[in-house]
Structure prediction request, 78 residues.
Amino acid sequence: MNKLKIKLSTSEMVSDFIKVCSRYECDINLYDGKNVIDAKSSIGVFAITQGKVIEVQAITSNESVISSFIEDMRKFEV
Prediction:
C-alpha cells in the first residue's frame, strides 16, 4: 500500500501538489475520510484540502512509479 498522509496548508502548496500529480500517467486519489477525490482535479483538491491532513495514493503496481511518487510527496508529508 502506498498511501501517505499529507497536508496542504497554502494555495501555493495545493497548486504545486496538483502540478506534481499531473506528471504521473496513473490515477492518484485523495482520501479525506469519507470522500475520494481525483488528485489531478484542481476543483476537487481545493475543495477538500484546506489545512486538513488527508491521504494520497498513486493507483499503480509499477514499483518505480510508486517510489518516484513517494519521493515527490515527501515535501507535503505530515
